[in-house]
Amino acid sequence: WASLxxxxxxxxxxxxxCGCGHEALSGTITILQxxxxxxxxxxxxxxxxxxxxxxxxxxxxxxxxxxxxxVLLLVEGFFTTGAIRDLYGEFKxxxxxxxxxxxxxxxxxxxxxxxxxxxxxxxxPVFMYYNVWAMxxxxxxxxxxxxxxxxxxxxxxxxxxxxxxxxxxxxxxxxCESNELDLTFHLFVCALAGAGAAVIAMVHFLMxxxxxxxxxxxxxxxxxxxxxxxxxxxxxHDIHSTRSKERLNAYT
Length: 252
What we know:
The chain has one domain (1-223). Helix content is 80%, strand content 2%. It has helices spanning 2-34, 48-79, 82-88, 90-137, 170-177, 179-251, and strands spanning 148-150, 164-166. Strands 1-2 form a two-stranded antiparallel ribbon. Helix 2 runs antiparallel to helix 4 (90-137).
């Protein structure tokens, strides 16, 4: 049950991160093109649009990879189920389950580090969009201030390009009143929440896998003890039977 709950939490977190992150990146492209007038660079130049496309492919890879990882965790839970061990034999399933559990523990730890990095990376656009959203919300209170949003500060364009929107301009008010900014900001927040849920799921996985590892290790030791005990009892029984036959022969 622990693996099943963790798998559901992981699927929910990954789905939330991938879905909201993909749409947030698409909204970012719309904002850059409509309000900052950023155009795609000709040729194979690495610009902000190419980076966003790469991030989308990474999202596709995360969705596919963690779907497979969730299936592996369900298989691990299947092999460590008591009913399956009783059906197919203790030693066979315990050995297979221990190998699979050890492999998944290593993967879970690596993926835990990956999702920590993804969570930290996702917090960056949330912080940037929060600053833009806060400027829009406080535009009336700081009227007259010469504040600008310069994409060069975020590394979205090169130093030679001047792509900025200043408070008081028509583009700034259109951007603040548009649905793209508010929706993209909240989509990034949801993506950050999904990444956090995935981190919690990976911690849950590590706890469940560690518990399964300990259980299977103890079960293997108990099986060895039972085998040794059964062998000794059989030897004692054979010795007793031999002595009884010798006494019977001597009496005869």
